Amino acid sequence: MAGSVTEDTDDVMAEINMIPFIDVMLVLLIIFIITVPVLKHAVNVELPRASNVPEDTKPMVLNLSVQADGRYFIDTSQIDDEQLAKLFATEAAKNPQPDLHIRGDKDVRYERVAQAMAAAQQAGLKKIGFITEPKTSP
Question: N or C: which terminus of the chain has fewer CB atoms within 10 Å of its end residue's CB?
Answer without folding.
Answer: C
